[in-house]
Amino acid sequence: MEKLSRGLITLLNAAAGLLFAAAIAINFVNVVGRYVFHAPLFWAEEVTTLLVIWSVCLMSYRLTANGEHLVTDILRPFLPASLQRALLLAVTAFGVAATGFVAYYAYVVVALVARLQQLTTVAELPKEVANGSILACFALALAGSLVRLLQMADTRRPLPGAEPAEVDDAILATEGAK
């Protein structure tokens, strides 16, 4: 499963990078068109925004699977290792439930705008492309959370992505000052 997860992360990183590069290219062409030829691309801002949003949303799997997402981690450093694992399991399980809930309702919204055949205001793209980014984001975060939960269930392994380097350094500095 780890090999599959790493492969998916590589694929999503590449896709996010390509989308972000496309957004930069469109922005560059729009700036040149606007200030050199006085003919901007009327759809550039909307498409650029969508591409950047999609590039960010595609990273949600990696962030959750590796434990790189934002988390308030005030108590954990002060708990014994067994309770740290239990806390992380509980938080990750809650994350699975929360991302599943949001992914479901994002699907409901995407299905609705698809059925209504709504279009974006300027570029007239199907709105399911725009709203689909939220569905993709939370579906990928759900998959990443499930992978992380399965990794954490194996008690022989160290906690995956448990401590960012900055937290390790801060804890060591605090302990050294005592």
UniProtKB/TrEMBL annotation:
<keyword id="KW-1133">Transmembrane helix</keyword>
<feature type="transmembrane region" description="Helical">
    <location>
        <begin position="86"/>
        <end position="109"/>
    </location>
</feature>
<comment type="function">
    <text>Part of the tripartite ATP-independent periplasmic (TRAP) transport system.</text>
</comment>
<dbReference type="GO" id="GO:0022857">
    <property type="term" value="F:transmembrane transporter activity"/>
</dbReference>
<dbReference type="Pfam" id="PF04290">
    <property type="entry name" value="DctQ"/>
</dbReference>
<protein>
    <recommendedName>
        <fullName>TRAP transporter small permease protein</fullName>
    </recommendedName>
</protein>
<dbReference type="InterPro" id="IPR055348">
    <property type="entry name" value="DctQ"/>
</dbReference>
<dbReference type="InterPro" id="IPR007387">
    <property type="entry name" value="TRAP_DctQ"/>
</dbReference>
<keyword id="KW-0997">Cell inner membrane</keyword>
<feature type="domain" description="Tripartite ATP-independent periplasmic transporters DctQ component">
    <location>
        <begin position="24"/>
        <end position="152"/>
    </location>
</feature>
<comment type="similarity">
    <text>Belongs to the TRAP transporter small permease family.</text>
</comment>
<keyword id="KW-0472">Membrane</keyword>
<keyword id="KW-0813">Transport</keyword>
<feature type="transmembrane region" description="Helical">
    <location>
        <begin position="41"/>
        <end position="65"/>
    </location>
</feature>
<dbReference type="GO" id="GO:0005886">
    <property type="term" value="C:plasma membrane"/>
</dbReference>
<comment type="subunit">
    <text>The complex comprises the extracytoplasmic solute receptor protein and the two transmembrane proteins.</text>
</comment>
<dbReference type="GO" id="GO:0015740">
    <property type="term" value="P:C4-dicarboxylate transport"/>
</dbReference>
<keyword id="KW-1003">Cell membrane</keyword>
<feature type="transmembrane region" description="Helical">
    <location>
        <begin position="129"/>
        <end position="150"/>
    </location>
</feature>
<feature type="transmembrane region" description="Helical">
    <location>
        <begin position="7"/>
        <end position="29"/>
    </location>
</feature>
<keyword id="KW-0812">Transmembrane</keyword>
